């Protein structure tokens, strides 16, 4: 015969160090994702919740749709904002995206 038979060799036993080195890249990727993606997003959500909880009548705000106005009435779920004289809108409290400094609307 021209081709000799090939026999399988016995597999070597994996040691504890090899197993740790196998999972090390996955652990490192998770740590990088945590510090670059998850942690900053959680901080941003915490700041947004604090801003929504601190809203009060008379604050000047920007909604998620880009509408600027002054809060005239607040409920648990909704806020009534005045966008022009005698023009009021009711928006969800969670749609308020930014709190503006006092006097910003007069400058526009």
How would you sum up this structure, described in words?
This protein is of the alpha+beta class and 108 residues long. It folds into two domains: 17-54; 56-100, SH3 type barrels, CATH 2.30.30.60. It is 35% helix and 27% strand. It has a five-stranded antiparallel β-sheet with strand order 4-3-2-1-5, with helices on one face. The longest helix has 38 residues, at 16-53. The model has no long low-confidence stretch (mean pLDDT 89).
Break the fold down into its secondary structure elements and pairings.
Layout: H1 16-53, E1 60-63, E2 68-74, E3 78-84, E4 87-92, E5 96-100
Antiparallel strand pairs: 1-2, 1-5, 2-3, 3-4
Quick overview:
It is built from 1 helix and 5 strands, in the order αβββββ. It has 108 residues and is α+β, with helices and mostly antiparallel strands.
Radius of gyration: 29 Å
> Beta-strand percentage?
25-35%
Encode the helix/strand succession as letters: HEEEEE
CATH-assigned fold name of the largest domain: SH3 type barrels
**Helix/strand class:** alpha+beta
Q: How would you describe the shape?
A: rod-shaped
Which labels suit this protein?
alpha+beta; 27% strand; SH3 type barrels; 108 residues; 2 domains; single chain; five-stranded antiparallel β-sheet
């Amino acid at each position: 015969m021209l081709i000799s038979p090939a026999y399988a060799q016995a597999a070597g036993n994996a040691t504890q160090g090899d197993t740790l080195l196998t999972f090390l890249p996955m652990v490192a990727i998770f740590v990088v994702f945590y510090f670059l993606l998850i942690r900053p997003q959680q901080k941003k959500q915490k700041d947004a919740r604090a801003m929504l909880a601190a809203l009060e009548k008379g604050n000047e705000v920007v909604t998620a749709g880009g509408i600027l106005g002054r809060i005239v009435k607040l409920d648990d779920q909704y806020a009534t904002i005045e966008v022009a004289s005698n023009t009021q809108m009711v928006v969800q409290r969670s749609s308020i995206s930014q709190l503006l400094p006092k006097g910003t609307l007069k400058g526009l």
